[in-house]
Design a protein that fits this description.
The chain is mainly α and 101 residues long. 98% of the residues lie in helices and 0% in strands. The chain is built from 1 helix and no strands. The protein is rod-shaped.
Length: 101
């Protein structure tokens, strides 16, 4: 009968060891989940910072483009006014030349 009692004691010890191992595994999994959660938060924060940086650069580039277009429009308007004046002056000369003849 003594060997059966030892067998039961060994089984109980084995079950206790398995329970302890299961608890250790659960704690490790919980720690890994927390680490992943922290990593995910860091990734999201990094992505938000990246998007903000890109949006800022985009706004700066847009402003530069708008300024460039404004300068070009002003140059074209000046050129058109100059050509209109030259055309009007040419017509005035042409009409005064025919009027004097």
């Amino acid at each position: 009968m003594i060997p059966m009692e030892w067998l039961l004691i060994e089984l109980i010890v084995l079950v206790l060891l398995l329970n302890i191992r299961a608890i250790i595994v659960l704690v490790q999994n919980k720690q890994k989940r927390e680490e992943l959660s922290e990593d995910t938060a860091l990734i999201h924060q990094g992505m938000e910072e990246f998007v903000e940086k890109i949006e800022k650069e985009n706004e700066e580039l847009y402003q530069k483009l708008a300024d460039y277009i404004k300068v070009r429009e002003d140059k074209f308007e000046k050129r058109i006014r100059l050509l209109e004046k030259q055309l009007a002056a040419g017509e005035n000369r042409g009409s005064s030349a025919t009027g004097n003849a």
